[in-house]
Amino acid sequence: MEILIVGGSGFIGQALQKALDLIRVPYKVLSRTPKTDTHIYWNPNNHELDHSSLGTITHIINLAGAGIADQRWTKQRKEELIKSRINSTEYLHNECRKYCPNLIGYIGISGVNAFGFNNNRKYHEGDAYGDDFLSQLVAQWEQAHLLFNQLPSFSIFRLGMVLSSHGGAYRKIAAPMKFYMGAVPGSGKQLVPWVHLDDVVGLTLKVLQDKPLGLIHVVSENSSMSELTKTIAQKERSVIILPNIPSSVIRLFFGEMGLLLTESLQINHTKLAQSGYNIRFNNLSDLMYEKEN
């Protein structure tokens, strides 16, 4: 087995590399700026890829994509969000058809924000996509992943908010808390599907070594935004003393992207529970026992 990681510099990609190092599974990482022997140069925007090390690759883990919540969704940013996912995956597939003769497995990621927002419904994997920007982004993203679905092992992980005190959304929420400036977005009653980083990595390793799961919701729990924010404050040894931030204010500052903070989404994760993977972080309270780096 030799893994090719796409998007290896991100939050999940770095954690995955550490895990593969621990179990001594060899891997390569596609990079625009190669710095180590494990890096392979590529620039999908220019259709550039060093093919010399691809012949031994057996599995791909595709984590590519500009951060959904990193910048306001201007027209230009939306184009970047699409291009960094769809175009790069299509180019990767085209190159792997020619230069990856030993490829047998593929894991792609997408997001649970595939259905729009509806507080009265819990969405299953087979439910129809919504018609908002984020839902359609997920639809195109997953369609690109499906180019690899003829491989013996093929999975798409629809991720909830990936939590870990070591980075990602957690650190953005926690940042103002050291100054006691943390606050709950919106009503606080909106539901947030989430999963811990360790479970994303653990499930990935299981699928690499076991059976594929196809399209699956990777979510541990649907928790309220109020519970999520207050749990993070507790772990950061802080308290929430400011009033909730009105949804109108969030929309003013973040535009359409603010929907991620203020709107409710419930995701069914029965398939994950029945997959044979034992989830380590089932409840927000489990974050209190998270290991330090």
Structure characteristics:
293 residues; alpha/beta; Rossmann fold; eight-stranded mixed sheet; 9 helices; globular
What does this 3D model show about the protein?
By secondary structure, this protein is an alpha/beta fold. It has one domain (3-289): NAD(P)-binding Rossmann-like Domain (Rossmann fold, 3-Layer(aba) Sandwich), CATH 3.40.50. 33% of the residues lie in helices and 19% in strands. It has helices at residues 11-22, 75-99, 133-145, 168-174, 197-209, 225-235, 247-254, 259-262, 270-273; strands at residues 3-6, 27-31, 39-43, 48-49, 59-62, 105-111, 122-123, 153-159, 161-163, 191-196, 214-218, 221-224, 266-267. The strands form three sheets. The protein has an eight-stranded mixed sheet, with helices on both faces. The protein has a three-stranded mixed sheet with strand order 9-10-12. It has a two-stranded parallel ribbon with strand order 7-13. Helix 1 (11-22) links the parallel strand 1 (3-6) and strand 2. Helix 2 (75-99) packs parallel to helix 3 (133-145). The chain is globular and about 55 Å long. The two termini are 27 Å apart. The model has no long low-confidence stretch (mean pLDDT 96).
Short summary of the structure?
By secondary structure, the chain is of the alpha/beta class. Helix content is 33%, strand content 19%. The chain has one domain: 3-Layer(aba) Sandwich (Rossmann fold).
